[in-house]
Amino acid sequence: MSFSKPGHHIPRRSIEGHEGTWVKIFNPPKESPPTPELLEPTNPVPAFVAATVPGVTNLTPYTIRPHLMHGTELKMWDGRELNFFLIGDNDTPDAFDGTFPGPTIRVPRGVVFHAQVEGHGQAPHTIHWHGIEPTAINDGVGHSSMEIGDYTYQWQPNHIGSYFYHCHRNTIQHFDFGLYGFLIIEPPDAYDSSDGKNVGGYPRRTAANLSQYPMFPGFIGGNLESGNPHAMTVPYDVEALWVIDDIDSVWRDQAEHAHQTFPEHGDIPGVNDEFHTNDRGKQEFFAFHDFNPDYFVVTGVNFPGRLGSTVSIRPGLTIPASLNSGVAGMQISVNARRNQTILVRLLCAAYTKVKVTFPVDVVVIAVDGRSLGVPPFGRYNKPYTIPAGKPIEMSTAQRMDVLIRSSRSLSSFGQIEYRHHLSDAFLLNGRIPIVIK
């Protein structure tokens, strides 16, 4: 759209002197935006983690303290080191220097959640709580929210399910470079030990409508407004997290800086901005659409193979409690017993086409954080079965929760097939062990 027309001129104001405005593009932020009056935080998870995981602190009560950074080298399966931007946690020694993906955040439904977030380095950052419905200023969408130097996000989750959080500033680069983590909303009493349950372990519960699937024991129907925290939920004995991602090493070389592609503002912002200052005037503006991954991972674990190969990760891989909000035993490769209920949480963080295949039938109970068939939307959707061997096609940022329950022993693999987003060429088949004894 032209900014001018004979007889008509659209005035543009300079951002100089307005660095504290919420809606902005700063590089980097010169100050932190004001935090509006905060609701009293009620999230019990930080205190639980501090009480049960050695070395963890909770310096700001009921509050987590993430920080976003860039410039960390991580080693790939073949020994090559690539540049990552990571999310760390100021209260957790295991996560202080950042992890890939970021630590999994678990939150009971209905609590007031606070995250006191710092941004580090030369580039602005945000946190977008993908699928949550906070106020606009806490939504963390770049350019329509605000970039952070230091800011306390607050929101209250309403729906049990699988979500994730990620930087939404220069999203294509920052998300691909590792600024994201998984986010799980649990039943309201998930961290209440008054009834004797093991708060930091399994079984746990998640939202579902399994009235047509009696093979999953322990399902409770009822009315969500009844006050029963377990209404429309099912227990699961085993939980696996599959975060599917792909990495283009050329991207890492061409855009190693966190604001490699940010423009330098001209005297008429949005009109005569300069996009080639950060590439030292070489006119080598980084082309994000030219994406050709050559490394493939699941939940931060490398599939150890080159393009065109079929390779497996090791069995027995788990996520430590310190990186999973104090819950011990979350798995990557699946190890279960017969007649246990297995919940696999899928997140597609890849930019390629992805097909996920299971060796057994699975029941899809939730998509993108919303449980299928759970009121008040029960008339519009319902859980469904995907037969063994039938691919589940997933796209970037999609989540899917599936349940497995087998009365037979099994030693097989779930498979993740990566295909090029333009040519559909086969890239890699990654296998994840699934063992049911």
Q: What does this entry look like structurally?
A:
The protein is mainly β and 437 residues long. It has helices at 45-52, 171-176, 249-254, and strands at 4-5, 8-9, 63-64, 66-68, 72-75, 81-84, 87-89, 102-108, 113-119, 128-130, 150-155, 161-166, 180-186, 204-207, 233-236, 238-247, 295-298, 301-302, 310-312, 318-319, 330-331, 334-336, 342-348, 353-357, 362-367, 370-371, 384-386, 392-394, 399-404, 410-419, 426-436. A hairpin with a 2-residue loop joins strand 25 (362-367) and strand 26.
Which SSEs are present, and which pair or pack?
Layout lengths: L3 E2 L2 E2 L35 H8 L10 E2 L1 E3 L3 E4 L5 E4 L2 E3 L12 E7 L4 E7 L8 E3 L19 E6 L5 E6 L4 H6 L3 E7 L17 E4 L25 E4 L1 E10 L1 H6 L40 E4 L2 E2 L7 E3 L5 E2 L10 E2 L2 E3 L5 E7 L4 E5 L4 E6 L2 E2 L12 E3 L5 E3 L4 E6 L5 E10 L6 E11 L1
Parallel strand pairs: 3-9, 4-9, 8-13, 16-23, 19-31, 22-31
Antiparallel strand pairs: 1-2, 4-7, 5-6, 9-11, 10-12, 12-13, 14-15, 16-17, 17-18, 20-21, 23-29, 24-28, 24-30, 25-26, 25-27, 25-29, 30-31
